[in-house]
Amino acid sequence: MDDARALATAMARSGIAADLMVIDDLARSPGAVPDAPVYIIAEPQGVATAAAWRAIARPASLRRTIVWGPNVTAGDIVALDNLGIGYVTKAGPRLDPLLRLIGVIDADYLAASRMRVTEAKAVAHSVFQATAAAFEMFGSMPTFDRDFYAGLSQDFSRQVETTPLYLLIDAISRNQDTTIQHCSLVTTVAVAFASHLGLSGREVSRLFTAAFFHDIGKSAIPKSVIDKPGRLTEDETRLMRSHVTVGHEILSRYPETAGEVAEVALHHHEMLDGSGYPQGLRGTEISDLIRIVTICDIFAALIERRSYKEPLPAREAYDIIVGMGPKLDQDLVGAFESVAFSVA
Ligand SMILES: [Fe+2]
Ligand SMILES: [Fe+2]
């Protein structure tokens, strides 16, 4: 599984979308093998796994399979060929041989993936320009530092250029304009709050990333549920709530977002009194970073227009947050007042 994770990360860095699947899981639910342009088995040798794969794969899928392993021997290559898998490459830090093989199996797929990367980077870039412009919203705050805010956004934009983070932004922005706007607003509010609290540059930039990706799991929720004008049914609510675990899973795949940032995605709907989800954490189990994002998230959701509600004025939104009492960190809520009131 570690080989597979390393490969998925390396491929994302090369701009190729990759999903991780466990063959045992697929074998348990027949019909679950998804259509894919190329299948890659990432294992030290790959022969045993390839045999299990052969038992469930369609012949066309088998012809689109590559084994990628660090210890593949000449004998393994013969054994794999006997199983109907003629594409084998030695695993290493350089992906060129693997990408060449993918190009042989499906040149269109490789070209389309590269095009997607270019487009995704352009989207990421425009999202950050919008986030930087939104900082002006806090122009009246005494702690507002235009250059600092613009610098943060540029740093993040650079990070997005050189890491797979652009794939995450692309994932949300492709099907959900409401979510991408929400994430931008939460980020802006969180950064304004952080500089009001006097957090260090490093802490603010951590908060920037955590706030931006807190709802990444919504990329897996259908737009019809996200933008549903009426009340959600019980099943829809359950699906909607799954965005926290899905987000945690996605963010844990990348070293840039694994750990703290992924934890914020998992826990930003927890409440200090234990009434939140998914784990009903309480008090000190909830870190400061999560507490800050939670307050900014609720505030942003209240002042946004959604398909099922009008935007609230900032003061009314702040009153609602105060009214949530023991659910939120009231010291932080008190400090948040001047941030909330500086929103025009
Ligand atoms: Fe959320
Ligand atoms: Fe949110």
Automatic annotation (TrEMBL):
SUPFAM superfamilies hit by this protein: HD-domain/PDEase-like
One Pfam family this sequence matches: HD_5
Any one Gene Ontology molecular-function term assigned to this protein's record: phosphoric diester hydrolase activity
Domain HD-GYP: 157-344
Entry-linked InterPro entries: HD/PDEase_dom, HD_GYP_dom, HDIG_dom
PROSITE patterns documented for this protein: HD_GYP (PS51832)
Taxonomic superkingdom: Bacteria
Name of the protein: HD domain-containing protein
Species of the source: Methylobrevis albus
